[in-house]
From TrEMBL:
CDD domains: YdcF-like (cd06259). Pfam families: DUF218. One of its GO terms (cellular component) is plasma membrane. Residues 64-163 form the DUF218 domain. This is DUF218 domain-containing protein. It comes from Cryptosporangium arvum DSM 44712. Gene3D superfamilies: HUPs, YdcF like domain. The lineage of its organism: Bacteria, Bacillati, Actinomycetota, Actinomycetes, Cryptosporangiales.
């Protein structure tokens, strides 16, 4: 399998979108849309359009500080020219981005979570504490982490109906260059590392995050083509799986 094909196989698996577009007609009734702060800036654009189109009754941004926060802060400095981002949570940065770039704002922010599990747990606790209806929600996360975020919701709130809409589905060409990179896109090296790190995490064995392993997420079926793509990239020496950062455990 060619490396570019292998990377795009991982993108197709991880960057799940259950609808073609975030519009009222495509979605039907939705209680809440949640943007998770592990996304690139383009996720803020997707979220802003959802707010402008009023696709749901409530809009929430979730994200404290985790493995992608420093990258988001760097993007805010280098792309947006902000020089006061140190110590700012992901949710606070995206909230400012929405206000300044799009003239819209979220209803609520969650600023204490540090990883996928606390993202979901804190979001659910916030919605429950403020008595926000959340029978059917849309979640927006980075392409690399969308599927895992959904698996965490399936574990912690199995009766909740979740509609996936990854912030982007950026592909690469045969030279592993990102095609039409969205705003704030990761470097190709980081993107590949994030994608490759998801396969062992999603694999439900003693090393993964599923019930047979660490119990962080619900069971996920990893299809053979995805396993083969991951193995092909490892064999070719292209990229490596992202190691978990103990600071955000």
């Amino acid at each position: 399998m060619q490396p570019g094909v292998a990377v795009n196989t991982l993108v197709e698996f991880c960057a799940r979108r259950d609808v073609a577009e975030l519009t009222p007609d495509a979605l039907g009734p939705v209680d809440v849309v949640i943007l998770f702060g592990g996304s690139i800036l383009a996720g803020g654009d997707v979220f802003a359009r959802a707010i402008a189109d009023r696709v749901a009754g409530h809009f929430v941004i979730v994200g404290g500080q985790g493995h992608s926060t420093d990258a988001l802060r760097d993007t805010c400095r280098n792309v947006l020219g902000w020089d006061d981002v140190d110590g700012r949570s992901e949710a606070a940065l995206f909230d400012r981005y929405l206000r300044e770039r799009h003239g819209v704002e979220a209803d609520r922010l969650e600023t204490a979570s540090t990883n996928c599990g606390t993202n979901v747990r804190n979001a659910l606790e916030l919605l429950a504490a403020e008595r926000v209806p959340h029978r059917r929600i849309v979640i927006i996360q980075d392409a690399s982490m969308q599927l895992r975020m959904h698996a965490c919701f399936r574990l912690l709130a199995p009766d909740l109906e979740v509609v996936n809409f990854a912030a982007h589905q950026a592909r690469v060409d045969e030279h592993l260059r990102i095609v039409n990179p969205p705003l704030g896109m990761w470097s190709p090296e980081r993107y590949l590392t994030l994608l490759m790190g998801e396969v062992p995490r999603l694999t439900d064995d003693e090393h993964g995050y599923g019930p047979a392993g660490r119990g962080f997420i619900a069971h996920v079926d990893v299809p053979a083509p995805v396993r083969e793509a991951h193995a092909a990239l490892l064999a070719a020496g292209v990229g490596e799986s992202r190691a978990a950062d103990p600071r955000w455990a």
